[in-house]
Design a protein that fits this description.
With 192 residues, this protein is α+β, with helices and mostly antiparallel strands. The chain is built from three helices and eight strands, in the order αββαβββββαβ. One of its GO terms (molecular function) is lytic endotransglycosylase activity.
């Protein structure tokens, strides 16, 4: 059987070999067992060969041009690089504010303006303090349960003697003082 086959990498082969025709026998010597493979050189300056009989599609040319990029390469990390996935996040600096009794306020004040002008939302983690600047973040811990919550100061109070903090209902639920209405807490100011 005789046939003509043009290879995908013909430009590279043709550049090296020019115009070449190979006829190979399978070993039996019969005409039907022979296969003909032909390469045709493209026209280049100084080459009088005929134009190629096959032109690859744009997709084939694109695939061939980028075939070397298909092999995944392991990224090389310079010795001076730092792997940030292994760095533990730094704990925020804290300043102990002491301990005292905290209470909470909820439905009765929900939607009313706070001292900083916001509307009070009993579902947010906020609190009222007499002197801390608005926006301060305070870690409030219930030493009885070990549970803690971080609240943002957005109001003034409490106005009951002996109490240091008024928590929103959501914050009071987090540390477990809803049932009693108040409880002993430890306060830490988060700085930075």
């Amino acid at each position: 059987m005789t046939g003509t086959k043009t290879y995908r990498h013909w430009p590279h082969i043709v550049a090296a070999l020019g115009a070449l025709t190979l006829i190979g026998a399978t070993g039996h010597g019969h005409a039907e067992d022979q296969q003909q493979v032909s390469f045709t050189a493209p026209s280049v300056a100084g080459n009088t060969a005929t134009a190629p009989s096959f032109a690859p599609s744009e997709e084939a040319v694109f695939e061939e041009a980028f075939a070397r990029y298909d092999i995944p390469a392991d990224p090389v990390r310079p010795a001076s690089a730092v792997d940030i996935t292994t760095i533990e996040p730094a704990e925020p600096a804290t300043r102990t504010l002491g301990s005292g009794i905290a209470s909470y306020y909820g439905r009765r004040f929900h939607g009313r303006p706070t001292a900083n002008g916001e509307r009070f939302d009993m579902h947010e983690l906020t609190a009222a303090h007499r002197t801390l600047p608005f926006g301060s973040r305070v870690n409030v811990t219930n030493p009885r349960t070990g549970r803690s919550v971080v609240v943002r100061i957005n109001d003034r109070g409490p106005f009951v003697r002996g109490r240091v903090l008024d928590l929103s209902r959501a914050a009071a639920e987090e540390i477990g003082i809803i049932r009693s209405g108040h409880g002993n807490v430890e306060l830490e100011l988060l700085e930075g």
